[in-house]
Amino acid sequence: MRKLLLLALLIATPAMAATVAGVTMPETRSIQGADLVLNGAALREKYFFDIYVAGLYLPAKTTSSAVALDGDSVKRLEFEFLLDLTADQLGDSMRERLEQTEGVRQHADTIVGWMTAVEKGDRMVMHYVPGVGTTIQVGSTVNGPIAGEAVMKALFGIYVGSDPASDGLKRDLLGL
User: Fold this and answer.
1) pLDDT for 73-90, tens place per residue?
2) How far apart are CA 69 and CA 82, in angstroms?
């Protein structure tokens, strides 16, 4: 039995904080009593600008997009902005995806309305709790929740879904 325990300790990979572009994403987060681990962290770049660093937190590490988008578990996406953005810049990037998703279109205006201007160093957090829904915090303002897993799948799918905003972002968030 001792040998099995020692073997398990030796092959277990501990969760590690990640630092990307000078931004550190903690190794764990907790939401309503659920402990989450950092699955991956990534830099979003567009037109040669570093936009934000994102961290994906899940109950257990996975490289599967399907597992990451599974509605039966608590999850969190955390962003730290590397430059100033207007509310329109944040909202416009989400609106198109939300309006294309059946069952989520009616929430697009609400979610886009939650976006506010951010400055370098500000954080945005999306988290999903089964049976409760998706909450979005921009700066210190918490919005939501919007019930149902469709909204979570649409929002999280922007980053780790089948047609992500950036293949590199998805790859790094899923640890591929």
Assistant:
1) 999 999 999 999 999 999
2) 26
Q: What is the pLDDT of residues 19-61, one digit of tens each?
A: 999 999 999 999 988 999 999 999 999 899 999 999 999 999 9
**Cα angle 86, 69, 54; round to 5:** 35
Question: Phi-psi bin for 32: left (phi > 0), alpha (psi -120 to 50), beta?
Answer: left
- 80: nearest Cα among 23, 135, 128: 23
Residue with the two structure tokens 């939300």: 98
Domains of the chain: 19-173 (3.50.70.10)
Long-range contacts of 28-34 (CB under 8 A, 24+ apart): 28/57, 29/57, 29/76, 29/78, 31/74, 31/76, 31/127, 31/129, 32/74, 32/129, 32/132, 34/59, 34/73, 34/74, 34/129
Q: Which amino acid is at 14?
A: P
Q: Are 165 and 44 in contact (CB under 8 A)?
A: yes
For residue 26, cis peptide bond before it (omega within 30 degrees of 0): no
CA 170, CA 9: separation in Å to the nearest integer?
Answer: 29
DSSP of 40-90: EEEEEEETTEEEEEEEEEESS--S-HHHHT-TTS-EEEEEEESS-B-HHHH
DSSP 8-class letter at 27: S
